[in-house]
């Protein structure tokens, strides 16, 4: 990923490195988001809209992403598992509204 990496993306990449064989669903507020190759794969397998982060960057430097609402994540996880994929979940450990720094 060219350019500066945000603290959130650094955390995501660290977790992804620890679970390279899984689709990593990363909790951000009310959504579980997937990035890069996981986003491309999940968008195809789950019929989700693939979008990007970093819209101010050139198109080739943007991070592919897709997400699902937290209240329906179990159904999406079940669909991925039924298709033979492993899924890793990264949860927020405190309320982002009251947190200082990275949650």
CATH class: Alpha Beta
Q: What is the CATH architecture descriptor?
A: 3-Layer(aba) Sandwich
Helix content: 25-40%
Give me the number of helical elements. 3
SSE topology string: HEEHEEHE
Spans where pLDDT lies below 50 across 5 or more residues: none
Strand content: 15-25%
Provide the domain count.
1
Overall geometric form:
globular
InterPro entries: DNA_mismatch_repair_MutS-lik_N (IPR007695), DNA_mismatch_repair_MutS_N (IPR016151)
Keywords: ATP-binding, DNA damage, DNA repair, DNA-binding, Nucleotide-binding
GO biological process, one term: mismatch repair
Organism: Candidatus Intestinimonas pullistercoris
Can you put this structure into words, describing what you see?
This is DNA mismatch repair protein MutS. InterPro entries: DNA_mismatch_repair_MutS-lik_N, DNA_mismatch_repair_MutS_N. It comes from Candidatus Intestinimonas pullistercoris. One of its GO terms (molecular function) is ATP binding. There is one protein chain. With 103 residues, this protein is an alpha+beta fold. It has one domain (12-90): DNA repair protein MutS, domain I (MutS, DNA mismatch repair protein, domain I, 3-Layer(aba) Sandwich). The chain contains three helices and five strands; from the N terminus they run αββαββαβ. The chain has helices at residues 7-18, 36-46, 73-82, and strands at 22-28, 31-35, 51-52, 64-69, 86-90. A five-stranded mixed sheet has the order 3-4-2-1-5, sandwiched between helices. The longest helix is centred in the N-terminal third of the chain and has 12 residues, at 7-18. The radius of gyration is 14 Å and the shape is globular.
């Amino acid at each position: 990923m060219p350019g500066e990496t945000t603290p959130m993306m650094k955390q995501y990449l660290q977790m992804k490195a620890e679970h390279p064989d899984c689709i990593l669903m990363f909790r951000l507020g009310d959504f579980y988001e997937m990035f890069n190759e996981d986003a491309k794969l999940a968008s195809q397998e789950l019929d989700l809209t693939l979008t990007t982060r970093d819209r101010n960057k050139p198109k080739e430097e943007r991070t592919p992403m897709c997400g699902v609402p937290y209240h329906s994540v179990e159904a999406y996880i079940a669909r991925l598992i039924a298709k033979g994929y492993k899924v890793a979940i990264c949860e927020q450990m405190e309320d982002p509204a009251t947190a200082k720094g990275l949650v």
